[in-house]
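Quick illustration, no need to memorize.
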Amino acid sequence: MQTVTILGLETSCDETSVAVIRNGKLLSNIISSQIVHEQYGGVVPELASRAHQKLIVPVVNEAMAKAEVRKEELSAVAVAVGPGLMGSLLVGVNFGKAFAYGLGIPFIAVNHMEAHIYSNFIDDPVPQFPSMNLTVSGGHTQLVLLKDEFTYEIVGETKDDAAGEAFDKVAKMLNLGYPGGPQIDIYAKKGNPNAIKFPRPYATENDFHFSFSGIKTSVLYYLRDNKLRDTEIPEQLLADICASFQSSVVDVLVQKTIRAAQQYGVRDIAVAGGVSANSRLRDEMKKAAEKNGLQLFIPKFEYCTDNGAMIAEVGYRKYQRSIFSPINATAIANLEL
């Protein structure tokens, strides 16, 4: 049996991550997060790309050392080429191409959104084709039907803000810091999800598209009308706001996913992306899946956010099918699935 060893690089936003997969088994997955952005309340593209330049070599070395793999043993280098921040993507893409060229091995361009989908294929058990995948992150919210390996149909996506973007913006309104999603999740556990009736846009529509800007605006109006802007919000009220907002977003995500799975006649559903780490989303999706006789797949927390393992997983699968990319391939900030 041929030994296939893939190096996966992920630099699409503010995580420098490198992983090694050999014959389908993950040997290492190193993630270096950039804390410099916290003071700005969001990712600063120029600072992100500079940080990637400093981190890419040491993170690669750490991943290779942990995997106990020498560079001469690599079969190919897989790299996220988009979507993402152009400056950040270019660091990973240029390093990956140079590394592959120097070793005389294939370069494999990976769509970042495709990689999120395959984060549920890193460990067993895995979804069976066809399956329905909900990808929820800071930049995207998509419902994707996986018809077969690398064969997709986008059945629904957000018309405005992504779910993760709404979480971050609401957290900023509440002065909870960045990234906002985890902070809202923490406060929501102490709050009443029924305390405030925020809207659930598109929840009853027959299509599978999303809209989260209205929920975000409703929180803004609630704070304004109750004179809670630019003032310290009482602890319990803050928890109730977080719980109610989170509940409205999660309800829409769960309802749409279950209905899409039923309409397209699939039994397996999967959730991926940064927001898939949200505790209420995981709990409510699990309840809904069990109630409707569906099999749910959600990745480990380390595979929810941007990570090299999901890039290496796609790279391994593409290598097996001899799907390689030209050495002049480049980053595409708005790359579509």
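The first strand starts at residue 5 and ends at 10.
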